[in-house]
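A.,

Following up on our hallway conversation. Structure tokens first:
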């Protein structure tokens, strides 16, 4: 749908702390994370979880025991057997896609209340058998007699046990045979960006998250408790002791000789969940719900997979053109920090008249985005990028920023593995709906 029939409002939201993946799987599955985010969120509502029209969750790599993870989450949250639930997957923007799907169903009158968001336990990404091991096991299973089984057993080789690392495969675009870091290097090179600029941006991301934590801005984060006796109250990947010197000492990961992308200026591999409640005006009136913001419009765009980090450039440009807005009309921006250099490349592309003419079909440069209005509470370089959840996370943070700053309009946008971009326009709604 190019236009909405009914307004759609964000009335509440919550997320877990984002937990950095370390040497072993973290305590929580993807559904555990979403349930933790949703439990307190739903308990404070004036309506029963059974009043939702549907539950939509973005997730890229649910476990084998979480098929259609949205349904697992919905049932665990007490939404009941009658509430349908479905899972969406658009790589890094899966959480944003879940919100967009919810908006469509509310806007056409299918539902009045939808629980939507995303979750990911990247630390639990599976290790898979390679094709040689799969074929050997198939042969062993099909052998009917003991001699046949023995013949198959002696064919085994230790190399069959070499695993396929699902996380690495998921972070690689096999159509262009590049991992996400290499695609970031491509666009950093295209616009002549420096390693120092990326490190400065990364340091600022940490500083801004730390400032937001110290000022108690991150009220959407709810503590989580594990069965192992651990608890977490804040994002644990933030480095309060990082310095530009420490960042500069790190070696490039993908282009060892000339590259700029390091572990310090990339988003962290992370676990986390973020959920939002979306409602129609009828539901807001019926349950006397607070209104945080209105979702105005969403746009999706495709780009060269080898330059996937430029997805936001195309999605945002198309979104603002459709809504007859200019970059100066946007008060605050959230661009997911897949890589520091990737965000800087987007900013450079919007100011590059040749790029805007050739690829965006504009008669002039899109314009400059003031970094004082961009990711003002920090971003994924500091707190991580659980791919299924990040789209929902940046929308929820943007909503709170607009309220806090008494600003009107904001845009949340992400680059998407595979060569896409997604962008959502949010409007602060201050009037009382009655």
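Then the amino acids I'd put at each of the 434 positions:
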């Amino acid at each position: 749908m190019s236009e909405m029939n009914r307004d759609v409002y964000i009335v509440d939201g919550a997320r877990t702390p984002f937990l950095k993946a370390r040497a072993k799987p973290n305590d929580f599955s993807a559904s555990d994370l979403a349930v933790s985010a949703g439990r307190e969120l739903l308990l404070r509502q004036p309506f029963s979880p059974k009043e939702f029209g549907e539950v939509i969750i973005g997730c890229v790599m649910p476990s084998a025991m979480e098929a259609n993870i949205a349904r697992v989450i919905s049932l665990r949250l007490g939404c009941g057997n009658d509430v349908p639930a479905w899972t969406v997957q658009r790589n890094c923007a899966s959480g944003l896609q879940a919100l967009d799907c919810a908006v469509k169903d509310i806007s056409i009158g299918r539902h009045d209340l939808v629980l939507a968001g995303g979750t990911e336990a990247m630390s639990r990404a599976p290790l898979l058998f390679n094709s040689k091991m799969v074929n050997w096991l198939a042969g062993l299973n099909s052998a009917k007699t003991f001699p046949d089984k023995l013949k198959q057993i002696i064919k085994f080789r230790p190399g069959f046990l070499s695993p396929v690392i699902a996380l690495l495969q998921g972070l690689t675009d096999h159509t262009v045979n590049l991992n996400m870091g290499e695609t970031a290097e491509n666009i950093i090179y295209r616009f002549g960006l420096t390693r120092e600029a990326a490190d400065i941006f990364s340091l600022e991301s940490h500083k801004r998250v730390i400032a937001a934590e110290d000022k108690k801005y991150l009220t959407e984060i709810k503590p989580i408790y594990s069965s192992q006796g651990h608890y977490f109250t804040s994002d644990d990947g933030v480095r309060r002791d990082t310095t530009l010197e420490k960042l500069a000492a790190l070696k490039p990961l993908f282009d060892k000789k000339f590259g700029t992308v390091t572990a310090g200026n990339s988003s962290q591999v992370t676990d986390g969940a973020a959920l939002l409640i979306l409602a129609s005006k009828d539901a807001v009136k019926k349950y006397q719900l607070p209104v945080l913001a209105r979702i105005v419009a969403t746009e999706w765009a495709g780009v060269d997979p080898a330059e996937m980090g430029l997805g936001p450039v195309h999605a945002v440009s198309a979104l603002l053109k459709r809504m007859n807005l200019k970059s100066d009309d946007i008060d605050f921006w959230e661009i997911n920090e897949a890589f520091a250099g990737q965000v800087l490349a987007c900013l450079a592309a919007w100011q590059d008249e040749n790029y805007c003419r050739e690829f965006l079909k504009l008669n002039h440069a899109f314009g400059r985005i003031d970094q004082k209005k961009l990711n003002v509470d920090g971003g994924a370089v500091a707190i991580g990028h659980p791919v299924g959840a990040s789209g929902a996370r940046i929308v929820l943070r943007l909503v709170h920023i607009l309220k806090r700053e008494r600003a009107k309009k904001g845009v949340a946008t992400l680059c998407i593995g595979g060569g896409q971009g997604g962008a959502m326009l949010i409007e602060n709604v201050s009037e009382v709906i009655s």
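Residues 61 and 149 are 35 Å apart (CA to CA). Curious whether your intuition agrees with the design.

B.
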